[in-house]
Amino acid sequence: MGGVRLVVVAGTTATAAIDGISAAGADTDLRTHTPSADLEIVETGRPAPDSPVPVSPTGCPTPAAVTRAVRELLGPESLPVEAVDAGLTAPTAAAVRDVGATPGGDVRDPEPVPEAATVFERARALAPELAAPNEGGDRARDAEEEPAELLVAETIPGGTTTALGVLTALGERAAVSSSLPANPIERKRRVVAEALAASDLEAGGAAGDPIAAVRLAGDPVLAAASGLIAGAADAGVDVTLAGGTQLAAAGALARHAGVDRPLPLATTTLVADDPTADLPALAADLDLRLAAADPGFGEADHPAMAAYARGEAKEGVGMGGALALAERAGVADAAVRERIAAVTDRLLAERAEDGGSADGSPRSTGGVTR
Amino acid sequence: MGGVRLVVVAGTTATAAIDGISAAGADTDLRTHTPSADLEIVETGRPAPDSPVPVSPTGCPTPAAVTRAVRELLGPESLPVEAVDAGLTAPTAAAVRDVGATPGGDVRDPEPVPEAATVFERARALAPELAAPNEGGDRARDAEEEPAELLVAETIPGGTTTALGVLTALGERAAVSSSLPANPIERKRRVVAEALAASDLEAGGAAGDPIAAVRLAGDPVLAAASGLIAGAADAGVDVTLAGGTQLAAAGALARHAGVDRPLPLATTTLVADDPTADLPALAADLDLRLAAADPGFGEADHPAMAAYARGEAKEGVGMGGALALAERAGVADAAVRERIAAVTDRLLAERAEDGGSADGSPRSTGGVTR
């Protein structure tokens, strides 16, 4: 085993701006900056000076804080991070891999992801590179070492709606979770119905054609994530889908692309137990081995964990996969919660400093959702 | 000491297409792809499948092969690499940092680098991030650890001509080296004279105004490299200019931006001894501590080293700085030469495989120069 690497696929979709879809949607700054800031937080523990701090007014931090907390507990070198630019809108200080993506259009456009095929193929070619032994390393000397296992994760506001679009287009179970405590699933279904009509597509009309499903009813993160999964499968590299319904949609795309390799889906109990999503049934349909991590957020006396326990955020940026790794490494739940609290407090302190900046404008106001 | 990190600033300038300036200039494929492929070679030891192999017909490989060879000898984890996108034209499989650069225009345009100020400032802000202890790491836990030393390097075909443009605009000694055995310095001087005239600038007209010098007569790599040097100086981070006359020009820009910190310039004897460049005098003018590494290329019985000994390539992609690190680590010159031969042979084998591809077209034909 060559270790584990977290691959965060980060992008944006204009779908997030649709009223009522995403809590971040109403706030252009957060909608466009959150994925860029998430990469920075996972990499260094804080957003770059130019990025807003993705923490909601209720104190619910981006799930990137949870993933970051796990990296700090395991030692960052034990969980290297790779970032893929799948349509970022705002600059990021993180180092990113290019797969030819641009920000996704509104899912109700006829073709929200025109470059879906390119992004899928470039991500497919990239997967074995990301898993190559000894990252940045000496392939000549270590030719016999095993490739790393890839944990594929996402960050894209509005992404559960495009996931619903893709699942519907493929003819799969049309249910997704939400980062809002009350899932606006009916609203999402109406948006997806409009999206399919605009693309002259019926439910199930893109079965067996994952590129068409993404191109007509998805987002660039789904194109890149499913390409990575297919590329890992091609190369015999172990890959875990580290996420909830969005990664399940990426898994569905990979299945429709002919991938029949075992695909674990590592998420949180917050998503797995969401009755509006029925992730266990979707995972069973797609032959994804579902595992759900629960660090006992309900037991923590901290606003961040309380917000998670209320059903805010739920998943994203590899949170469930990271929590599973902490469990596998034998880290106690209490230590995980303590570190999440510490990372969140650091982010809140940054926001406070930032809010006191020269122009007096706070950099973060809305909630964060996907 | 927090170790050493190599920061490769990679970009392109339309200046490379000027007849007789750059051996790569005549070959659009190499001119646009070389910096992208160089990042891949330094990171993984070979170009990505879509990149050409930057090896000249005489068997002279890109200096990236030398830097890569040193990384393999020291262990890649001992010399981590960071890449900055300072105006790449072709895609790269390497992970890159964004500083807002676009490919540079022809130096004879009135404003070849319109975004010079943004690129300089963003690179300046990035420098302390790149040097932060424990890369991607745990700042909370290791807060007391020292930042790393940065080795700033470049890859940009045509870059010695824009370096001459900037030195002239600043009123510094107008002499640069060349990757061609016979330096077309008079041709470069004529191009720079045209460039200054087009920008309504006299020699020395941008003294004390480094942003204007780059904006009107430089390239985006010089903007980013000088920004990194200034940012490192701001943060008290040790920085070495790993290159020849182009890094000297970046050092000149930093001096004109008010940086008075000691700045070592680590290059090869191939550049330092080039009489057409007079790098020792330029370094003395700018108070750069010049050190030149010589791994005895003349003694090697390999076409790659023979080409270097004849004066091809000479420097680039941090070659001189990397050779100095190998020396500092006590690696024998013979071992360095042997590993350079091995990396080059791998690249040539890739090119041979590539030349036999479906469409029969070889991917690399011209020479590589800067």
From TrEMBL, chains A, B:
Q: Where is this region: Disordered?
A: 350-370
Q: Which InterPro entries does the UniProt entry name for this protein? A: Nict_dMeBzImd_PRibTrfase_arc, Nict_dMeBzImd_PRibTrfase_sf
Gene Ontology terms for molecular function: glycosyltransferase activity
Q: Which UniProt keywords apply?
A: Glycosyltransferase, Transferase
Q: List the HAMAP family hit by this protein, alphabetically.
A: UPF0284
Family per similarity comment? Belongs to the UPF0284 family.
Q: What is this protein called?
A: UPF0284 protein ABNG02_05940
Show the taxonomic lineage.
Answer: Archaea, Methanobacteriati, Methanobacteriota, Stenosarchaea group, Halobacteria
